[in-house]
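Notes to self, (raccoon dog) hypothetical protein:
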Amino acid sequence: MVSIPLHLLDFTQVHFIGRTLLSRESVKWLCLAFEESRFNISKENKNGIGSFDYGIFQIYRHFCCKDYWSHSENICHEDCQDILSPNLLSAISCAKKIVSGAGGMKNWVAWRLHCAGRPLSYWMTGCFLG
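result:
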């Protein structure tokens, strides 16, 4: 069984007539977070081109956050260390900004390889909470 961080569930849940359930949109985020980090909110990964990816969504330093070591476009206006925060607010805010831009979820290689075009019903199994 996979353990999902509670703040990520809060982000992905839809409330409907006294029940909490995961929406079809929510399962996309769960798949992405699992495939990128196995839900490890503090994951830091040095990628093949010498840059780093941060947090549960493995947000790319070069474009998305500031690390004070190198130039970044910092489209999320976030400090990379804040992306690693246990409350996930910075990570979620940044991920939403990335998705709202060109490419959407396809900006993540893990999404393209493991989630896009695949049935995501697995992520709904057992997730209807009451």
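- Residues 24-37 form the longest helix (14 residues).
- The two ends are 19 Å apart (CA to CA).
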